[in-house]
Amino acid sequence: MPPLRDFKEFAFLPRRVDRCGRNVGSTSYWKLYSIENTVRVIIHSVLSKQISKQWWGTAVNPTVAKEAQKRRARHAAKPKHANPGSHDIYLINLFDLTEILRVNSHLFVPIIPETDQFLVVLESIRMPRNIIGHMNFPNAYDRNAVDTAYKQLPTILDRLTAGNVPIAIP
3-state class of 79 per DSSP? Predict the structure, then answer.
C-alpha cells in the first residue's frame, strides 16, 4: 500500500480527512502524548529526589510558573472540562519542559548522563509536536523525529531505576 498523503493535496473528501486523522492518531499523536507525559514524570521524579517534593518553586522560571497559574485559573473557571492534572507541570508545554531540563541539567546529569543529548532530541520534536498538536499532517522527517524521541524513553527511565530515583507521578 502506498504511503498515506495529506488530504490537502487532493480534492476535498471527508473520508480523506478521516484517513489522515486516523493515521496521525495511530502513528504519531500517541507517541507525542507518551513522550511529553513521560518527560513530566522524569522531571518530577528527578527534581523531587534532588531538591524536594516542592521543587516547582525552586526549579521553574517564575514566568513559566505564572503562566501555569493563569492556565490553572482558566481551567478552574470551566470545571465541566477535564482537569489537566493536579501539578502545575501538566499546564506547561514541551518547550517549557525542555527549559526546566536544560536549566537544571546539573541535577539530571548525575542520574541521566545523556541529558544533553536527550535535550537535543526533545528540541528536534518541538516543530513536529506543534504540527501534529495543531492537527496538521506530519511528513516523514517529522514522524521520524517523533519515533526517535519515543525510542529513547526506555533508556532514560532505566537511568532513574539505576540511580535509585523512585518514579513519581506528579
Answer: coil
